[in-house]
């Protein structure tokens, strides 16, 4: 599944460049920057230009507190709307926990949105996602169902344990309707209960 990274350069500096080698062809990195962002060297610029992912630089105006953050979140909403027919993971790269409210808002609506600090967290969430995918295949389920269920699982399992199962159920019914959604949920219910209780769980 394609990933779209929203990078807060005022917060993470140049650490995001190491993420490029972790990204796949077809992924996209949106680099949000202001005049307070660190400058690139020619060596780092070369790494960007030779990357296999799409890189887009987004200049943000500043001068007020959290100006870049507001512009990043606005662009995130626009991209989610534009990609709502195509499964996509949206990843905010920032150490600012203020973005967690944005993550909670979108995951509650069954979109695969997360916030991560760097390569280690991205790797862990990738492993979690692969774990879910394999366990769904073992049920077995067709790939079309798995593509829909993965973002629902990733969003639900970031929540409090008391709401994880209900969030999965509601996300499925929203996508397939109450009758078909309930039937699908019954099929995967044992797996939902197991993961909700014991994980593994995505990290922010």
Q: Can you put this structure into words, describing what you see?
A:
With 204 residues, this protein is α/β, with parallel strands linked by helices. The protein contains eight helices and five strands; from the N terminus they run E-H-E-H-E-H-E-H-E-H-H-H-H. It is elongated and about 55 Å long.
In brief, what are we looking at here?
The protein is 52% helix and 14% strand. It is an alpha/beta fold and 204 residues long.
The geometry reads as elongated
State the total count of DSSP E strands.
5
Strand order of the largest sheet: 3-2-1-4-5
Number of helices: 8
Radius of gyration: 18 Å
Which series of helices and strands comes N to C?
EHEHEHEHEHHHH
Class derived from helix and strand content: alpha/beta
Calculate the terminal CA-CA distance, rounded to whole Å. 19 Å
Largest sheet: 5 strands, parallel
Fraction in beta strands: 5-15%
Topology:
Blueprint: E1 2-8, H1 9-12, E2 28-33, H2 42-49, E3 54-59, H3 67-82, E4 88-93, H4 100-107, E5 113-116, H5 119-137, H6 143-156, H7 161-176, H8 178-198
Helix pairs in contact: 5-6, 6-7, 7-8
Descriptive keywords:
alpha/beta; 204 residues; five-stranded parallel beta sheet; 5 strands; elongated; 52% helix; 8 helices
